[in-house]
Amino acid sequence: MRGVGDVAISPDGRTVAYVVSVPRSPKDKPGDAHQEIWLVPARGGTARGYTPAGQRAWAPAFAPDGERLALLSSRPAPGSSGARGGAERDASTGLYLLHVDGGEARLLTNREVSVSRFRWSPDGRSIAYTAKDPEPKPNARTKRPGRDHVVVDRNLEPLRLWRLDVATAPANG
Questions:
Q1: Residue 147 lies in a domain
Q2: Which residues contact 114 (CB under 8 A, 6 or more apart)?
Q3: In this structure, are residues 2 and 53 in contact, taking their beta carbons and an 8 Å threshold?
Q4: Is residue 161 part of a domain?
Q5: 172 within a domain of the structure (yes/no)
Q6: Which CATH number characterizes residue 107's domain?
Q7: Whole-prediction pTM value?
Q8: What angle do CA 134, 136, 137 make, to 5 degrees?
Q9: Stretch 121-139: mean pLDDT, rounded?
Q10: 48 within 8 A of 38, measured Cβ to Cβ
Q11: Beta strand 15-22 pairing with 126-132
């Protein structure tokens, strides 16, 4: 059964974006349902798929000008193994930007961090988002004996608040 959620209305009130959760087919590898973003005219009409089928995308948010839509997605990195199946689990959650009329999604954030939430600025020039710090790369200091402790039942990964300029954000993450 398909489910609907994450509804966003364009600033002019003419378009509605929403997320459709699509169960995996029996041929897919086990995992979460696919989440696709769809657009429909607010007064009714034909809905159209906005993000590629079989990928995970959610949290659509219209820019204040109504011309762009930001969203979260855990798309696999370009050149990684498989666009379907378990590859989504290996991908971090990135912040993407698309024109409302369609086109290719532009990754706005670094692939080393996983975005939790985001909000547009009132003027549409920037986006504030929260993300955990990147996983530190192992080095000699952290690998030496006695530095192998594990903290159980605690989430010590702080969320940080970030701001990006939409016009100058990296095109490829």
A1: no
A2: 92, 93, 94, 131, 132
A3: no
A4: yes
A5: no
A6: 2.120.10.30
A7: 0.79
A8: 125
A9: 84
A10: yes
A11: unpaired
